[in-house]
């Protein structure tokens, strides 16, 4: 899929800005739908307590995205500076170091949250009536947290690589996958909030694979570099 944006020197700043702005806005809007979609399906397939459990879990999911945003924004900025200097080797080093760092961090997050799931659920505001479902939902999400972080980080860096439309396509594919799997797991299979968590997690797996395929192609700025 050739979705690279070509920007020539005669193009106005406004046009350059819009070519990146529009796909980015669409991607962020789609990102905001993930937990909303889970909430819709669990409210229909399970009940109001399940909806409450998903909403209670949202701050943790936002935390995961915030961590990814922290690393991806910093890495993409440094990468862009190196690309501007035509220093492709250094850009690849930053790209690889960022990827390794967020994978290690996701493992740390998994370990901490797995052994403190009860405390995390109570900290987020779970009550006696919702704590079981909150733990069911979060217990699934934490195992996929690495895919959340890596997927969003790659999505941001793909834009730096000059492919904002491709990044948006990946996000849309992930969102559609989430909707389809939510329907199957929650409505058809009756897996409840666990099914919603699995659906959301798998959608991030698919988007991560989609983005990694981009970086495994030839003739791109970025490639995996031994650090």
Distance separating the two termini: 29 Å
Order of helices and strands: HHHHHHHHH
Number of discrete domains: 1
Roughly what fraction of the amino acids lie in strands? Answer: under 5%
In short:
80% of the residues lie in helices and 0% in strands. With 227 residues, the protein is mostly helical. One of its GO terms (molecular function) is xenobiotic transmembrane transporter activity.
Would you write up a description of this structure?
The protein is built from nine helices and no strands. Helix 4 runs antiparallel to helix 7 and helix 7 runs antiparallel to helix 8 (164-188). Helices cover 80% and strands 0% of the residues. It is mainly α and 227 residues long. The longest helix has 37 residues, at 48-84.
Name the descriptors.
mainly alpha; 227 residues
Sequence-ordered SSE layout with sheet pairings:
Elements: H1 13-31, H2 33-45, H3 48-84, H4 88-114, H5 117-124, H6 131-141, H7 145-160, H8 164-188, H9 192-216
Helix pairs in contact: 1-8, 2-3, 2-8, 2-9, 3-4, 3-6, 3-7, 4-7, 5-6, 6-9, 7-8, 7-9, 8-9
């Amino acid at each position: 899929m050739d979705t690279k944006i070509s920007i020539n020197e005669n193009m106005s700043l406004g046009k350059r800005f819009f070519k990146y702005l529009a796909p980015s806005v669409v991607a962020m809007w789609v990102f905001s739908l993930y937990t909303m979609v889970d909430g819709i399906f669990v409210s229909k397939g399970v009940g109001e307590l399940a909806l409450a459990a998903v909403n209670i879990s949202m701050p943790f999911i936002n935390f995961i995205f915030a961590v990814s945003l922290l690393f991806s924004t910093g890495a993409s900025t440094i990468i862009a500076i190196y690309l501007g200097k035509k220093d492709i080797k250094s850009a690849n080093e930053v790209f690889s170091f960022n990827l390794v760092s967020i994978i290690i961090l996701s493992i740390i997050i998994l370990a901490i949250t797995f052994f403190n799931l009860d405390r995390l659920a109570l900290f987020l505001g779970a009550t006696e009536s919702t704590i079981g479902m909150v733990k069911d939902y979060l217990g699934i999400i934490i195992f996929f947290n690495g895919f959340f972080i890596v997927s969003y980080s790659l999505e941001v860096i793909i834009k730096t690589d000059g492919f904002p439309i491709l990044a948006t396509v990946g996000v849309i594919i992930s969102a559609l996958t989430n909707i389809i799997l939510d329907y199957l797991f929650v409505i058809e299979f009756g897996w409840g909030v666990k099914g919603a968590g699995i659906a959301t997690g798998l959608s991030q797996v698919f988007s991560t694979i989609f983005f990694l395929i981009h970086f495994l192609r030839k003739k791109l700025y970025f490639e995996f570099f031994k650090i």
